[in-house]
């Protein structure tokens, strides 16, 4: 590798380096301790220095220096890991540089020319790099060490590296931490003790920041049941964020493929960089805080002051700019933030250059004034360009007047929600408006209180604005906690969730979805029809066709929009409540916001998101309710009980008039509101839960509590209010008002920060997914009917899974990754194509007769691919190895015999196998996709069940059912036996035995022919002898081989499976490296 020319001092360097070659202008040196001779104590010291110091010129075993005869100064210009690499550089210098140097008169000109040439070579190499790092020179050096120490495949992309200490036991090892796309690696070499650690991100169970008495602050990694600690990092938080991003990226790509497809920033593993990961983490945090669509990315951040008209002071905060939104969040503890869609901006002015201020004017006669913006001119131009506004002088004087007009005339503030034409929506009214219109003249106490709430919100709107650019403050949360008026609930849900922006930027989208999904018949639509009448059945709106039809349209449209989720139980309950207070199209976009942003991964096949939040809930219980933890050490009970709380936002356990208050808080504060309320519920019932004796009693206590929750301020009549789900005798339990319960939750647990919840989510997601994988793996292993490899099945599954992942590590176009189908049984979740299978099978098969991608490997692949889909699942792989490891002599021989019959030894009908070695990867992928797509339409459950039934009832194949083996196949069968016996201590004896068996079978065939000839006429005899090929049955081959004790003892020799698996573990990754 060429290096940027750097001056070095050679006063004491000759003690560390040995000169291999030299000439007038260049010297090639080898590091002591490398290559021949070892180096003894000097080699140990040099190796230690190489690990600790950060310079490739000190680390690489070989280097080339430039010097001139009349100068004592040397310049490092190249280094290499291997002698072959450095010799190539040396030869290039000899052929291309040496002749040119003779024309120069002075040493300075020679050195200047060499340095310029080397820099030019480095620049040419840099043009081929996909991404330029902050310091390309140091990064190239680090990448060189990374490749040298860990010997990973060339496609592995190093993302970043850090100096740190790794704690091995109680002793720290100083070294280097390397973070790549698929692996976490550490290397240390101190006084002859080498420490090398390679962990793939998909093996992580825990990743968290910790601290204790010994380690003030460190990063804890749990993998394979072992704890690893990394400390003394200069930038610990930065390192942790990168590790967190890489682990999450790997989990999404390999385990949770449905959500990975929604991450365009991480679409290609070879394009991932440190800068890209940091930007992705910031954008994710930005979108979560401001409830923005997933397409938005954080582009710019500016520190500034914002003039807050209702408080008449400037609040310090940050302006965050994305493609379509201008957002501001305060940093002074006032909890004030505002979201301005670019579509609402009408002008941007720079009224005062001395204060570096700019004013953003939005629709609704509103203006926001930002001051002390460092780069205010560029920011103003950026906003103008994104909004399509031209700077015009006539607007200059209008900015201050707009601000003053807003302060003096708050009643002119117009509603920004729902300004788009919604005439195309199927239903333009909320169901509550249709089935329970408010009586304006009704003056009962509940209605009067409802009017007072509305008045409070109208005052709030006049002070803080109304619509998409409204200020969100502490006062907003206080009003939410007190309860939202029935008339404003739908509008505020749309605003707080960000669904108002989705609907405004997609006019007509819902109507098109309804038209496209109308009449479709899928598994999702069948489940929707089944659950329609189970959604709030006691509410009048869903006792009529109006409500049922609206619910059907919303759920069907969403299933059509997002087939990965389709429909999940609990979506019907949530959507029913949304339809009560929002128009049909608004309810659809609210459902989109909940399923895709606010509750990620909740409504999928494995409800991973809900399980993650339950783990977060358990952590909060340990932290906030220690008394309960002391009494109930196993908190998994609360996970099972609270699942419905999270999936339905308490709607399934609380009466509807109380549950909507919880939904109000959820749309404002997100999952934090649900966690707080869950803690408040357990706290309220603390004494009763502590005194209970079993789980059933605890469930009864919580059910009675939920039955007693009321909403004393609800203006809904009894016909609309939901009856209690459990015990209707509320007199047996003191009633609890929902507003008081929510207020108590915010007072006691309101200090829980949303950032901490998100961090806990990421930390627990690794553990939840790995636990699901481990549990399902154990179920799969327990159901496999294999005898020999039964004990080793868990290890074998890990190797099989890793081989599946290896095929996905360095490409997004892997057939195994693209053909992932979560509807399949878990046995078929991880599958191997031919290339991956041949690599793993060559490591595990007992006789070393199948080399990678050999014809014999292809025959084995065809033979065990029972459904002929071009992929091998774990069950098929295990059954084949089980036969080869400890099957009887007859079964092993039958496997080898069938290997040379169709579909093993076959060419023609199966195009995939015929072309597997000739097609390019892209062509192979396209062909593979066509096979899968043409073969799989709508899932036929009856056919699937029939297939499993036939497999259960399948009888063992009789040896009499096997076809005869012809001349060509028998010759190949004999060659296979020679390959198997090659290298065995009894090789010569086994070869003679095969020759004897072959000779015996041929004589038997000749005798058979003569007997046949005696029964036929001489006229037909000559024709038959010339046209008929000889063949053998399996019984003949088996009987002949049984007469050879050497062959029988060879196949009955036990195989050390444990040793075989151990060797495969070491060689698995290297087989990919040396591919």
From TrEMBL:
It comes from the Eukaryota. GO terms for biological process: glomerular filtration. It is found in: Cytoplasm, Cytosol. One of its GO terms (cellular component) is cytosol. GO terms for molecular function: calcium ion binding; GTPase activator activity. Pfam families: GRAM (PF02893), RabGAP-TBC (PF00566). Residues 860-887 form the EF-hand domain. Residues 483-670 form the Rab-GAP TBC domain. This is TBC1 domain family member 8B. The gene is TBC1D8B. InterPro entries: EF-hand-dom_pair, EF_Hand_1_Ca_BS, EF_hand_dom, GRAM, PH-like_dom_sf, Rab-GAP-TBC_dom, Rab-GAP_TBC_sf. Keywords: Calcium, Cytoplasm, GTPase activation, Metal-binding, Repeat.
